[in-house]
Each structure stands twice: as C-alpha cells, then as structure tokens.
Amino acid sequence: MAGFEDFLPIMAVKLGEHDFMAELCNGFRLLADSGLGLITLESLRRNSALLGLDSLTDAELRAMMEEGDSDGDGALNETEFCVLMIRLSPSFMAEAENWLHKALVNEVEETLTSCKK
C-alpha cells in the first residue's frame, strides 16, 4: 500500500504549484492547535486521525515533530510543516537534484546573456 508521501507528487502535478501549497496549508491547519497556530505533539496526537495517521505511535509522532522542528521550539509552524511534507516524499527528494541543476543552468544562461549585452 502506498504511503501518504507517495501521493504528493501526483497532487502537485494535478493541482499546480499554488493549489498544491494551499492544500499543504490546509493539512497544517487540520493538525495545528487552533489557539497557538502551531502543530504541537498534543495537537498532532489529537488530530492525526483526520489524515489517516492514527496508527502512528507516540514515538513516531515525536520523531516526526523532531524531524520537522528546524527552530527547536518543540512545535511546527506552517513553513516547517510544508518543508517536512516535501522532505518526507522520496519522489520529491529524488527530483531535488534535477531542480537544482536546472536552476543553476538557468542562472548561468541568464548571466551569460546579460554579459553579452
């Protein structure tokens, strides 16, 4: 059975960049503590069933929180959540090198073009 992360690239292609990010933000709001505007371990535990994550243990939920908590405050803000979802997708991460290569090629081409003018 495919995991949630396997559907992210399909969603991104079908929805387009803007709508895909909006859907990730909707997922964040489903999991977040409404008073804090952050995903805490407690809010993740309480709301995880909404996204089909109710089979995850406390240790797995805690590990997910730690993986995404880049500022070390013990909670996930919207940006940390979106970054975590992308990082957990093997397909997105496999494409990251290709995206970086294309971006660098575009930058070099633009630089060369502007130097010729």
TrEMBL record:
Protein name, entry field: EF-hand domain-containing protein
Listed GO MF terms: calcium ion binding
Sequence ranges assigned to domain EF-hand in this UniProt record: 56-91
Residue intervals passing through the bilayer: none
Protein's UniProt keywords contain RNA-binding: no
Entries under InterPro entries matching the protein: EF-hand-dom_pair, EF_Hand_1_Ca_BS, EF_hand_dom, KIC/PBP1/KRP1
Superkingdom of origin organism: Eukaryota
Family matches, as Gene3D superfamilies: EF-hand
Lineage of source species: Eukaryota, Viridiplantae, Streptophyta, Embryophyta, Tracheophyta
Keyword annotations from UniProtKB, A to Z: Calcium
